[in-house]
What does this fold into?
Amino acid sequence: METIPGFDEVLKDLERSDNVSKIKKLLLCATKNRWENDPDTLDSLDLSDLVQDTYKVATTFGHLESVILQVIKKLNKKVQYFLLASTLVQKLSKLYPENQAKRKRIRTQLKQLKKGVKYPYDLSDLKFTVSRESTVRRAKVLVFSALNYKFGYSTQDWATLDSLEFDELVRALFYACETPEDLEFRLYGTATCLEEPDKQIKTANIIVESMLPYYQEIQRGRDITLDADEDEITEISFKSSYHRPSDIQLAAQTKKEEEDDDDSYNSSEDLKIPDFILTDESDAKIGEVIKRQREVENALRPFVDNRVNAIMAVLETHIRELETELDKHIEDSHQGANAPLKYQSLRQFVKDVQAKSSQYLEMLENMEANAKKG
It folds into this structure.
C-alpha cells in the first residue's frame, strides 16, 4: 500500500464522526459512482479502503473537491450532504501537503494586512459583469448563503441582504476561503442547493474567475500591503441586527430534508458544474490578466497626472492673486497689524476649495452606478 502522509490521523478523525455512514456513502459514490443505502452493506465497507480509493481518484485537493461536488449535485438531500461534505473535504485536505503549504502562504499574507485595509481592491468590474450576465441580487443571495446559511427568501432574509453591500459580502467570502479551491467548492456547492441552480452556478463561475487573480497575487509572494487602500474595511459590517447561525440553526436548515425519507442519488442529473483543477495553464492565464490590468493602469496614469498638475497650477495662481487682493485691502484699511487675518483667509480659501471638490467624488460614484445599470 502506498504511504499517504497524514493518512492515519485523517482516518481516526473520520472514524470518530457521528456521520460515518453518510461519509461512506459519499466516498463510495465518489470512487465507484454507486449510492448505497443498505445499513448492513455500509457497515461492511472499510473506511480505510474508501479513503485510499478516494486519494487515488483525486490526486490533487482541487480534484477532490470537484469529485465530491459531482456527487452532491445529484443527491436529493443536497443541503444536508453539502454541509457534511464541507467538513469532510476539510479533514481530507491534510492528505495533500501542497494544499497545506498554499494555505499557509495565503494565511500569512492576509494576516499582515492591517485592520481597515481593503483587499481585494476595486470590485466594480466584477459587479458590472454580474449585472450584465446575471443579477447583483442573485449574486448576493449566493454569497450570503455561502457565508452563512441557505437563503430562505423570507422577509427577514431579504431585509438582512438588502442592508449588506455587494463588495463587503464578496470580501468576507474571500477571507473565509483560504484557497481558490475553497472558494470554488463553497460557491459551486452552495449554488446547487439554491433555487435556479443553473443560474446560480453561472453566477458562481463569474465570481470565481474574477477572484482567482487576487489569490494568484498572494501565491506568487507579492506584498499586497504595499498598494492596498486603507480607506475601506475588510471585515464585513452588518448594518442590521444579525447573528451568524449556530449549529442548531444550521441543523434546522436541513430539517425538511431529514423528514424526507428519500435519501437518493439521481445519476441522470444534468446540472453542470465546471471542473476547477488549477493547472499551470490557468496560472499563466491569471498572471496575464493581472499583467494587462497593470499595463492599462500605467497607461492611464499620465493623463490623470497631467490634469492634476494643470489644476494645481491654476490653484496656485488664484492663491497668489487672492493674497495680493488681501494685502491691498489691509493696506487701504491701514490695518497692517491684521496680517494674521490674511493667512486665515488664505487657509479658509484652500479649505473651501477642498470641500467643494469632494462633491465631485459623489457625482462620479453616481455616474459609475448609472453606467453599470446601462
Summary: The chain has 18 helices and no strands. Residues 280-332 form the longest helix (53 residues).
